[in-house]
Amino acid sequence: MTAKDIRPIPNYIMKEIYKRDMKIEPWQTSIVRFYAYLTVWKKELVKVTVAVATIQNKHWACKQVAVHGIHSPECYVRDMEYNYFGYGFRVGWYAEELQSQQKRFEDGKWYPAGAKYYDPYAPLINRGVVGKFPEYKYSAYQLYEGRDIINYLRLYEQYPQTEYLLKLGLGAYTENRSLLKKISKDKAFRKWFAQHRKELALPYGNAYNTTTILQAYKTGLPLKDVRHFLFRKKQFEWESGMAPIRELFHGWQLKKYFDYIEKQNISDRLYLDYLNACNHLGIDMSLKCNLFPKDFTYMHDLRVEQYAEQKATEEANQKQELVQKFCEIAEKYLPLQHNKRSAFICVIAKSPADLIREGELMHHCVGRMNYDIRFAQEESLIFFVRMKEQPEKPFVTLEYSLKTHRVLQCYATHNTKPNEDVLHYVNKIWLPYANKALRQIAA
What is the reported pTM? Predict the structure, then answer.
């Protein structure tokens, strides 16, 4: 295919484009739209992309802007520019008298260009032209619903298995080269794919990705479980401070950990507290009874208590300095306290003794697991949420990160989840207020 082979838009194609465009954009916008039609030039299947625009709700214009041949390494582009910064494609309309000045990229001539950069999504007008080519007779092109039928047919020539994917209702995977390569070489994988077609038959936007499918095939686990695990694993790997847990669980061993904390209804940070206590005490974490205790709450409290006793002995000589530093930090961040227009108030811990009292009354470990040190080192702050009518009565405790400006933990008594009213207050009222106050302190 060459630029000289390009012919004007046939009248019947022009009428069909106009008919479809009027149903979608009946003289309401100046945004450029794209349509595509198929034709045959010198025995080659060719896709022509057409741009359409409406100006001032009265002038409708249509022009060819890109031509892709199925066996041509390059496409041809005219009066269209690809914007690399995410704005899509721009089309010039000077020749059609829809703009007053000629744009720098439009001169009415056809230029060769990279096919993948100049292929905007465009609904196809005449899919039936594919049937004129015997080599595509069994390609199941009639079932194809993707964005580029030319690309699909190129893949079909290389991987005929695409036909079966379409017929199985798995069109979302017909242009995935990694999966097609695996299907073409691995008979067992082909069988697995067919057996799981009901699970895999999802719309294009919700289809399982390659990693999920291959891991499900390798492990024999349900696709939903694998996708959930991979998503959770990705989140976990980005979570700060979780290195001790990641060192303990590698690869798919993480799934056992995720399943355990979900069953125990605990957070990563609560398990991290337990793990840190065990490591400090020299507990053998290779034993399952220590790694996954049947009663986590009991063992957590026991190890934390043992850790606290040992730590108290080790840090006796440093206590006074810590108390002084703690009080200085509390004074510095007093502006983050909140007592406005709400049934709740939020006050900062004033001393390590406040943390100990809070932990004892609330039956959690805020007074024992180095929260006072993290506070004094300005890593995270501890705040107490109180009912405004009972400002002295412990109610909810939260940990706030000075690095990420996020709430790391928020627990009521016995490490239970607070009610929705409290969570709304913490996340929607106090947190924005605290972040604003923190910026003012920094300034």
Answer: 0.60
